[in-house]
Structures are given as C-alpha cells and as structure tokens.
Amino acid sequence: MALPPNREIAPPEGTGSSLPRREFLRRLALATAAGLATPRGTGPAAASALAPGGSVFPDGIKAGDPTPGGCVLWTRVAAPTGRGPVEVVWSVAEGADMERVVRGGVVTATADDGHIAKIDVRHLASDRWYSYRFEAGGGVSPVGRLRTAPAVRSQPDRLRYAFASCQQRTESHYVAHRAIIQENVDFLMHLGDYVYVSDGGTLTLDDYRGVYRTFHSNPLLQELHAAVPLVAVWDDGEFYNGVDRSGDPTRLAAARQAWFEAMPMRRPRTDRIHRSLRWGRLAEVLMLDTRQYRDPQIPANSNFAGVIEAQDTRYPPCDQMFAPGRTTLGVRQRKWLERRLRVTGARWRVIGSSYDMAPWKFIDYDTPAARAEDPALQRNGGLYVSNEAWDDYQAERRLLMSHIEREHIPNVLVTSGHTHFYKASDIMPDFDDLASPITAMEFVTGSLTADPDPRTIAPEDVLHVAENIMLAANAPYLKQVDLLRQGYAVVDITPEETLVEFRGIDTLDPAAEASTFARFRVVAGRPGIEVLA
Fold this sequence. Notes:
533 residues; alpha+beta; Purple Acid Phosphatase, chain A, domain 2; 2 domains; seven-stranded mixed β-sheet; 31% strand; globular
C-alpha cells in the first residue's frame, strides 16, 4: 500500500519544538472548522473522555524503520460501518503522558487499504525516543514508543538490537516477545515468518489480511510492538512454503500487498523491500529480500540418519546447487548490496537475511581423503541440510564473498533466521580451503515459538549428538549450533567490537524468562567469531 494522504495539524516551528496537547487539540478543532473532517470524540471538549481503543484499534500499534528525522507509524482501525473511511488522529509527543506534542495530524484509513493508517513522520530530532498514539471514533490507542536514528555523520557509541523470526501460533506462548521488551534495544529486526499462512487456503488479499489480523490479536505481540520499533523483511510464511519468483502472480501480489499493509515501512514505487538503514557512522543495516527474485530451491534427494531430508551433491538434482547464475537475490539486488558494502562510510556493515547464509552440512565430501578416493567430486560437495537457504545458491554466495575479499571490505556481520535453530559461523569464499579468508560473520536465531517442540522429535541427548556431528562436518567455520532452544538474539555494536548473545526461553511455560546460553564477540578489524561462553 502507498502511504495514505496525511494532513499535518501541528507542525513544529523548528525541529525539537513542541505544543501543549491543549494547543494541539485547539489547532485540530480549527482545522475541522476549515473543512478537515475529524473523528467524533477527538475535539478539545472530549479530550478527557476518550475510551480505551482495543475495539477501535484491534491490531495494536507499531513504529518502524527509524531514520535520523523520523519513522513510520502504523495501526489498523475497525471501521464502524465496515467499509466507510475513518479519520484517524495521530500525535507524537516528548513524554509518555502525551502532553507535549511535537508532530500530529489526521490521516484517512480506507477499505481499499484494509483500514490501515500509516504515517511517515518527519522533522523529529535525531537519536531520540518519543511517544505516540492514535485516536479515532471516540477511542484512543495505547501509547507507543518510537525511535529516531542518529544523524548520518554522527559518531554514536552504540547500537543495540534484537533479531528474531518464526512466530507460529501453536500451543507455545509468546513469552519471547515479552522478554524482548526488557532488553532495552533500539529496534527489533524481524527476519520473516511473521505469519504462517495456509499453503492451500490463503489465496486472496482478504485471506492474507485475515491471517495478519489473527496473528495481531495476540496481546504479547501488541505489547512488544508498542514498546520496540520494528525493522522487518519477509520469508516464505508470509506467502506459502517454498515461495520463489515462479509463483502465481495474482497470489504473490496479494501476499505482498497484505505484508506492506501490515508493516510500518515506507513502500517504494515497486515492491522492493531490500533497503538500507544508517546508524550514524557506526553501522549501516542492509535488509535483504531472499524470496521475491530467487530461483526455485533444489529439492532434497537423500536423507540423514533415515529421518532428516538432505541434499547429496553427488546426484541430481543437488549437483545443481553449484550452478553458475542461480540466484536468491537477483542481479539488481546483489549489485545494490555489493555497492552499499563498498561505499558505506559506516564502521560496521550489518546484513539482515531472512535465511542462513553460511554452509550447513551433515557430511563433508570436499576433504583431502575424499578427493583422493574420488577426484571427480564437486568442489564444496557434501551431504547438506535441506534448508532451502543460501546453500542452494553457492555460486552467488561465492560471488558476494569474493567481492568482499577483493574490495577489502571489513566488519561484515550477517544476522539471519528461518532455520528454527541457532548457529554462529564464519563465512569465506571457499569454506573447504583453509587458506580462504574470513569475509563475514553470521549469527542465526532460533524460532520465537516452538514448531514443533524439538523434544517431541528426538530426545535431547540425540539432538546433542546431531549438533556434534554438524560441528565436525562444518569445521572450522561453524562455531555453535543449537537444535533445541527457542528464543531470539541480541546484538551490541560499538566502534571497537560487536557482542552477540543467544537468548533461550521455554515457550511452553507462560511464566518463562529468557536466559543467555551462548555469547560471542567480533573485534573490529579482526575477522572471525570469538566464542565467549
């Protein structure tokens, strides 16, 4: 969806100035008299009589994609008549009491856009927290928190963010969402599978909208979004399992529109979601789209231990995992990524990828012993985890890593989701060549909810044996793998180093709290992950 027309009511006289709420409401009333329709119950006389907005704003509120001067605000309005337009008042203030308004206005939510109100707020002070809320139809939303990014040329001393993915609606609880609120992060990077649609039953725009409304109804998800700004990309759960560029165009268009409607993101003229967010001179965050332009995945042709699907590169079709020209990014997006990595003035380059980039094998065929026995084995051959991730596009991954090596690009971090398992891994152009330099460091988060609880698949001791097999098959670049826990991860970036912590939580316990089970460090200018705990 395009951002709906927004009518500013209380533009500040200068960045950082504010209006008392009473004055904001007075100007709103004057605008009404001048012909701007406003929702009943939002005028000055009704200011103290606003009702709670749960029924008016059933999906909660969100802020996202911070810039040095603003961010995007989001909500959905329950239209009283079902189809008619609804006028929504929005305001941004300096404190949680909403008494000192710095920006505000009226936006019209229409049925064409699912009664979404989305505002691209600008002209705020950089590197600041603000409060915001919505009012419509006599109701008022909860007060949310928004964040502006530091100025592009500033030298911030820290960026702290959480990253997460895969939030099913199962018997597990959204306790990880509650825990993220306590992390004091600048934003949440959500790497996809925000919803899970029905492969055969979610087909139309109304179908997709209904799925988002069902997921949004979770109160812990609403509390998280009100407290923590969001930076998001999609994976396949937002479309259907295994989605790629070859899908039905009508269905893909419906899924894209529903996602854009549901996310606090500025929609470009095209359906492009890859984008850059700057955090001063400290970091540039590069969010990728691994789904919309990708070639179809390589299907499994084998299994591991008789139970887990795998890709054996010795046999078709998995011998095509190395084929030149296969892409998950598309040429245009890859060129954009390579350029941003090269030209950014930021100290750290952070890539947000919906699925994991580092190799992940059960058995390594590309060893001196294996090559001596069979010289025809493919370079980097192996029995791979069937994970429809970057391993399916190995030539493109090598191109990207070779670009980083050739251009001497330092401090490249990758944070990824999708697998439902935690991983920490160094990445290099040729991961079977010990002389190949480390060009990036990747951290992969587990799932926010259990799907299913891994303990229902295999005993914990068996899962730990599988972890050790994977560590041996992917040595020395794979530093950590955890097949058991759910949760999220937290990243702390400073000019000198980046610290990453994997947080686990028992999602089957409604009172559970998160705890750190693994810690890592990357020192600026020194490629490679250090395992701290």
